[in-house]
Design a protein that fits this description.
three-stranded antiparallel β-sheet, single chain, Aspartate Aminotransferase, domain 2, alpha/beta, seven-stranded mixed β-sheet, 388 residues
Length: 388
């Protein structure tokens, strides 16, 4: 097969950190308040602006609290679980590595006793109808490492007694989330926004705030960066730009730049549209290509952002299991070396395959120009392996 002649303009298809917005340059950071205290009025104003732009663009209700917290999405979700879980039973839904990590934290580290775990393998999703509205519910919206997402929020009760804890790190700005169904929601800037890592976003419903102010877990010490209350009351400053620890004002400026870009492309509607258009290009290619398929067979739960693919060519399937991942890596290595696609090997714990980011910061032309290279890389690697 002849090597394609046109390369994607943007080869950054990593699923995290993800590609910067189109036409981004370091000039976008020229107004960053470098060398300034994050507690200076000007710095706090920028942090507050990040919060309010998220509220406006995502349609987050006015009575929900939004904070910028340490340690990316992981830190945001951990501080929520350690601060609020334990007052009632917990239902945890897991179907990929990060949601499985929440199961382990809840059972092995928080050591909660009344826990029901509903798990599924890579490419599948558990039975969401088993969620009990009397219990707390923990789940990810978009399984970044499996390419599987929840189809909607219909399975979450409007009259629930428990709280819903949603890890939405690769879902925010890709789907229109039902905020009335979500009590604790977290994400990072590094996914659909293509921002810089290390900072997390935490959104609390009024019911979540009530839990924080009324429930104190017994015998559970909380590190400083997890503490959201003082004297039984929410520390409101955290949700007004007074961060728990020192943020990067460069990363804050970068986030503001991307949020301004989102505004220019018609806000949430624009980012959702770009994600789905990118996904549709891959969907068409997969339907026309016999050697590849989606890891998630049910299209109703297939991710539009972290698109996970598996090789279904009979030759590949007949390889010994220990040879499958090296074959995939031989494909992705040559694509990386040629500057066509970086970081598209499937997640280390997932079945051997490809993972291609199709978030809003990726252009349709880059996805379209990638597909012939995938065919070329597969045929090249297969020919080489067959001749060994």
């Amino acid at each position: 097969m002849q090597e394609p002649s046109i390369k994607p303009k943007n080869p950054n298809f990593s699923s995290g950190p993800c590609s910067k917005r189109p036409d981004w340059s370091v000039d976008a950071l020229e107004d960053a308040l470098l060398g300034r205290s994050h507690r200076a009025p000007e710095s706090k104003a920028k942090l507050k602006e990040v919060i309010e732009k998220h509220r406006k663009l995502l349609g987050i209700p006015a009575d929900y609290k939004i904070g910028i917290v340490p340690a990316s999405d992981t830190g945001a979700f951990e501080m929520a679980m350690w601060s609020m879980l334990g007052s009632r039973g917990v239902d945890v839904f897991a179907w990929e590595s990060f949601s499985t990590g929440w199961v382990n934290d809840i059972t092995d580290h928080l050591k909660l006793e009344d826990v029901r775990c509903f798990e599924a393998g890579y490419g599948d999703i558990p039975d969401l109808s088993k969620a009990d509205p009397a219990r707390d519910i923990v789940f990810v919206w978009n399984g970044t490492t499996s390419g599987v997402r929840v189809p909607n929020g219909d399975w979450l009760s409007e009259t629930r007694k428990g709280l819903t804890f949603c890890d939405a790190t690769s879902a925010v700005f890709a789907y229109d989330l039902p905020w009335d169904k979500l009590d604790v929601t977290t994400w990072s800037w590094q996914k659909v926004l293509g921002g810089e890592a290390a900072h997390g976003m935490l959104v609390l419903s009024p019911r979540a705030v009530e839990r924080l102010e009324s429930y104190v877990p017994e015998n559970r010490p909380l590190p400083k960066i997890f503490r959201m209350t003082k004297g039984g009351k929410l520390i409101n400053g955290i949700f007004e730009g007074s961060t728990i620890n020192t943020p990067s004002m460069m990363a804050v400026e970068d986030c503001l730049d991307t949020l301004n870009w989102v505004e220019r492309i018609d806000g949430l509607k624009g980012t959702i549209k770009r994600c789905r258009q990118n996904y549709k290009i891959l969907e068409k290619w997969v339907s026309d290509t016999p050697w590849i398929d989606f890891l998630a067979q049910d299209e109703d739960v297939r991710s539009f952002t972290s698109v996970c693919l598996k090789v279904v060519d009979p030759w590949f399937n007949n390889l010994p299991e220990e040879e499958k991942l090296p074959f995939i890596k031989s494909m992705t290595k040559v694509l990386d070396e040629k500057g066509v696609a970086h970081d598209i090997t499937g997640y280390r714990d997932a079945p051997a395959g490809l993972r291609i980011w199709c978030g809003a910061t990726i252009s349709r032309s880059s996805v379209r120009e990638l597909t012939p290279w995938l065919d070329w890389a597969f045929e090249t690697a297969k020919t080489k392996a067959s001749n060994v």
